[in-house]
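Hey team,

Filing this mostly as a record. A colleague (T.K.) asked me to run one chain through the structure pipeline before their review meeting, and I want the input and output archived in the tracker in case anyone asks later how it was produced. No errors, nothing strange. Just documentation.

Input sequence:
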Amino acid sequence: MENLPNAETSLSDRWLAYFAASGHMGVRRIGAGVEGVVYWLGEGRVAKVWSGRSPADFELARQVYADIARHPLQFSTPEILDVEDHEGVLVTYERELPGFAMRVDSAHAEYERELSAGHSDGLLAVLRGMASVPGTEAMRQLTVQGDDRPLWRGHDCFRNALAALVARAAARHGTALAAYVPDFYAGVARTQKALRSLPDAPVTAIHGDLVPPNIHIDAAGRPVAALDFGFYTTAGDPAFEAAVTAAIWDMYGPHAEEHTAELTRLFAHELGYAPETLTTYQAAYALTTYDLFGLDDSDGHFRWCAEQLRRNAVFSA
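Output structure:
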């Protein structure tokens, strides 16, 4: 989670007043992400004010949460207690998850060069946990951020669904990215070919946004919660989750490239994923999220995606 832009402060204040008027004493905003703003209500509850999601389509996400909760994990995941439609805005009331963020986002704190054993072990534990949850029909029906249709619609395997998403995403604003990435359209074609050539894989739950603030740990450094599902949540190859997690652990720090390479090697070795598969999925992630926040290199995420593609061995082969 990260702070909202100043322009949204007044909106945030209105929600603070709304929750206070509803009887929640000491309410405070505790964070924000792509999907919305989260408020602490006390008594073990939080509220999430969603952006870009209508109350009518939330039952699918609620079913996904329930599907994940049916499989015991060593860490907690969100539990929806109640849902409200307030003037067309979706508000969910959820159980407060334990622990505290594994790290502050790398946009706000410089990570040291050495990866700690505690962080590496924690990431592996969460990846193994998510990979133990079978993918469900509700997960297949989810639409990832920025797209206009369920990821799996018209497809019977993840690799082909993701290749089709790459094509749609490149068609949205590919000319903007092509200005910063040499041989862009040939790279898109290489990535799609590599995706379609991947071997069959299990279909499991994919969180899709396991940045450090979305993993909570306890005082001993053990992961106790995974939160903020929704940005790229779907069903798919667990190697995709590992590939993305390696890439987004440190997106903006001075050692980001080294951390991505090190975690990619670690996950390949410890989880048994082919390095080429992880590299392919990292290219696909950059190609499908590059335009979500801006369309030139003044936007940090756009710039990060362009850098990922320029050095990606599959895209740039």
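Quick notes for T.K.: Residues 158-178 form the longest helix (21 residues). The mean pLDDT is 93.
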